[in-house]
Amino acid sequence: MKRRRRYRNIVSHITTLELIQSDDSGLLMDGDLFSDLTGGRGTDLFLGQYSERGIMFALEKLGLLDRVKIKRLDNLSVFMDTSRPFQHLFRLHHNEDGKHHLVAELVMRRGTFTPPEIKSTTANSWDILVVEWLTLQNPLASFSSRSPQLPHQDFPGLGLAKEVLEIFYWMGRRARCNGVLIIPNSVAAAMIYSGEFAFVDPCRQGMMKSIQKLCKQQSLAQVAWAWEEEKIVGKKEGKMDKWKPAEMLLPTSRSTKKYFRSRSYRGRVKKKEAVTRLQIEPGYEKRFTSHWQACD
Q: Residue 264 CA to chain centroid, in angstroms?
């Protein structure tokens, strides 16, 4: 992937000291870092690896801040909460007219996960980064024919999902994890994540392949709303229920890449894909207002 090669070149030149820069004194000293990671009060670093200033430095180096500022979101401020030891929060706001407009919100933690297909033992558990919540939005923009409202959206997206998912990959690599796990709450979210992530359950991944085929025939917005309103029909399954969240993983180690490349996994994906034929119920079409917001 061209983007991955380009990001690798940038990431490889960002040092650990640059990622843990302190807002008050420039850089954390080794003793402060050791205390930060081992003290009872928890860490001031996001996932124990990134300061507020370090995150903004990395986003600038990767070109994402410029992409955000082009959208008139140029008066940015950061909020980070690492007081909970197992759940860290990062927010990016645009400040205008005394209001703090949410641009990005990320909640992550470190954990372990064992796929049902693998014998459940500690030795076979994956060390992972878990994305508990992710929001990327342009609070100053309006929905349009090119970017109609999707389920669970309050504002149009930033158009940076691919880049952010790529950053997750390098976060997993830097943390020496087996992968990054996320649980999409809608078909639209799963479609967006599917560029980098795959469902751990091969049957769900086979279904995802069928959804991708459907999205080549219909717009993502129509497919997403049809699923939300239970207007998707499977040739074998009949009417599909509302979306059921399930784990998707971005593999960052040999063991997890081996799992997704295994003959067993790929075979079950193909088997499910082969018997799944999805379509939107005849006559259904989601209608939008003149601002391309979804109507009831």
A: 26
